[in-house]
Fold this sequence. Notes:
By secondary structure, this protein is mainly alpha-helical.
Amino acid sequence: xxxxxxxxxxxxxxxxxxxxxxxxxxDSTLLTLALNHPQNSSLVKSLIVSKxxxxxxxxxxxxxxxxxTEKETGNSFMKAQQFPEAIMHYTYSLIYNPKESTTYxxxxxxxxxxxxxxxxxxxxTNAIYLNNKYTKAYYRRAICYSNLKKYQNALDDLLYLCxxxxxxxxx
Length: 171
């Protein structure tokens, strides 16, 4: 029994000119491309980076509100165990509020629930970069490292947690 070949998606020639394309593209289009067409992921990632750099300061109240709304929507999908949808909303939240460490950590948990531990490590590392005292991010990263059989890295994160005077209630 043959499986259906996945459709090959190529950007139209008019979209190959990145600066013009970015100006006419909204954020949801970039997310759709990233999530539905992984073969274009490097192009889409560069477009998202360009889009992020073109956004106004992330501390602008309207951008923070949009980011927080998307994060809360992601949290709702997490509670319903709809992980791909949660990841999408967390990603959208990070476009508007890229300095929110808890959103990275929440998305890391969603990736972990999908057994995508490498992406979980990446997001936890981003959360730690933004807030180096974020104990939950260290704990979740240790879990990801352990599942990737990177036991020394997992142990390092757990030892850090033991050495800090932070409350473990956050974990």
